[in-house]
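Weekly modeling sync, notes
Attendees: S.R. (lead), two postdocs, one rotation student

Agenda item 3: backlog of single-chain predictions. S.R. asked that every request posted to the team notebook include the full sequence so nobody has to chase files. The rotation student volunteered to paste the first one in as an example of the format we agreed on. Action items at the bottom.

Example entry:
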Amino acid sequence: MTQEEPEWFAGIDWASERHQVCLLDRAGKVLGERSFAHGGAGLAELCDWLLAKTGVTPERVAVAIEVPHGPVVEALLERGFLVHAINPKQLDRFRDRFTVAGAKTTAAMRTCSAMPCAPTEHACASSTATRPR
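Predicted structure, as returned to the notebook:
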């Protein structure tokens, strides 16, 4: 059985209170941006929003985030999304490619955070769920 390629790509700028999410299609067009509260209800809303916007199963959505663990990653993995941990330095290089030097707008950061998984998924490390013993 072969795994189908992701059709949608999300970048998450995570924080302790609210998470900013940008959703791109395969062509790199921004489909939507939203902010979600940190916590069970907010994370469930984030997952539901991604599924509602894309209309596909979670396995068809690749999500890029700067951390390989924590509640956001766990919620996404539990729902079946393809989670890719992006090294912050790698993300900075993608921002350099797609923004004006020195520009660090929040919108540009979110858009660029989804891009590493879209054109170069093979360069992203996939996370897997681990269960505590």
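Discussion: group reviewed the output briefly. The CA atoms of residues 22 and 107 lie 8 Å apart.
Action items: rotation student to repeat for the remaining queue; S.R. to check formatting next week.
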